[in-house]
Write a structure and sequence with these properties.
By secondary structure, this protein is an alpha/beta fold. The protein has helices at about 25-35, 55, 60-65, 75-80, 90-100, 175-185, 205-215, and strands at about 5-10, 10-15, 45, 70, 110-115, 120, 125-130, 140-145, 150-155, 155-160, 160-165, 190-195. The strands form three sheets. Strands 1-2-3-4-5 form a five-stranded mixed sheet. The chain has a five-stranded mixed sheet with strand order 6-7-8-9-12, with no helix packed on it. The longest helix has 13 residues, at about 25-35. It is globular, with a radius of gyration of 16 Å.
């Protein structure tokens, strides 16, 4: 349903998002790290783009097996503690999600709130925190200037190898979402690592310009 990204900095690992709640998915994440000779003790932090269950669902399961800390917005922290994801989709989607994939609550002590005064996180020599409200009102993305890799969360979707923005019906503030997507495009990333879809490493200029015109229109 959603991607999990591992940022490896020496022996330290940072995850970006965690996918839908499932012990099997927690095992998949740990097994992947083990293939890199990395283990739960190497996991230092989890960065959340937002607190939807398909992105934050395995936080509790991962924290139970590690000493990692979660970094999130103040809104996402409150939602994680309550086990109540943001309600920015139709009520029937909320009902189905709470029934089949509820968000497991996390203790407040394991969550640190991003400092809005410090946008450069001390990860991989500097990982930029970017406010990208739209999909949710507190959505954030992450950009690594040294390599040009953008971790867009749900600010952008990679569908069939092409970038898109999410449908209005799944977006808290569509106008803000379009502005956020434009801001990300203007950074000219080399890699678009979105929350959904395979990362795009060879985005075609024509496709990017077409999306930019759509967003500006």
């Amino acid at each position: 349903m959603a991607n999990v990204y591992a940022l490896v900095d020496g022996d330290d690992v940072t995850l970006i998002d965690t996918a839908l709640p499932s012990l099997d998915r927690v095992d998949v994440i740990f097994n992947y790290l083990e293939r890199l000779d990395l283990f739960p003790d190497n996991l230092k932090r989890i960065l959340l783009t937002h607190a939807d269950a398909d992105h934050a669902g395995n936080v509790a399961g991962i924290l139970a097996e590690t000493r990692a800390t979660v970094w999130a917005t103040a809104e996402a922290k409150e939602q994680m503690v309550k086990g109540k994801p943001p309600e920015h989709v139709p009520a029937v989607f909320v009902w189905v999600g709470n029934l089949f994939a509820p968000l497991p609550p996390v203790t407040a002590e394991r969550i640190e709130v991003f400092n809005p005064e410090n946008r450069m996180l001390p990860i991989l020599g500097g990982l930029e925190l970017i406010s990208t409200p739209g999909h949710t009102r507190d959505h954030v993305s992450f950009y690594h200037p040294q390599t040009g890799v953008l971790f867009a969360g749900d600010a952008l979707f990679a569908l069939g190898g092409r970038l898109r923005v999410g449908p209005d019906m799944l977006t808290a503030d569509p106008a803000a979402g379009r502005r956020a997507a434009l801001d990300l495009l203007k950074r000219s990333p080399t890699v678009f690592a979105c929350g959904h879809g395979a990362p795009i490493m060879d985005a075609k200029m024509d496709d990017l310009l077409a999306l930019q015109r759509q967003l500006e229109g």
